[in-house]
Request: fold
Amino acid sequence: MAFQFSVEKHIHSDPATVFARATDVAQWPAMIPGIIKTEVLTDGPVGEGTRFRETRKMFGKEASEEMTFSAFEPGARYCLLCENHGARYEFEYLVSPDGDGTKLEMRGNIEATSTVAKVMMTLMKPMQKKFVQQCTADLDHLKASIEGAHAGGA
Reply:
């Protein structure tokens, strides 16, 4: 059993800048109000294999998840992977030129991998819309942050 969704935003900035800002894990709390803190768990620059812990407020509660960059193609695409509570969460982000800016598309796939998670996913179906709304809000904040920095010449 899986839940899939897609959200996209047009950002008035170039693809390289959008990619760089979108993958700057340390700056996410400053750009996205739903994220309380991040902690990079691996050494070196962010890239494929980088692990980090993200703490955010979701559905009114604070929760931390450990995630991994499972793909990292600078300027074009990255994927985040998380496995927790009997489910596998995969989020693919595609960055592409779009007219006077960049299209940032987030494709989500949440798959229940345990019997309990399958039951919970069925019971939590009404929450799926709120989850997509939260992801949309995150991209809205990221867009505003990038465009604000771009307008300011940063």
Observations:
- The beta strands are 2-11, 35-40, 51-58, 61-73, 77-84, 87-98, 101-112.
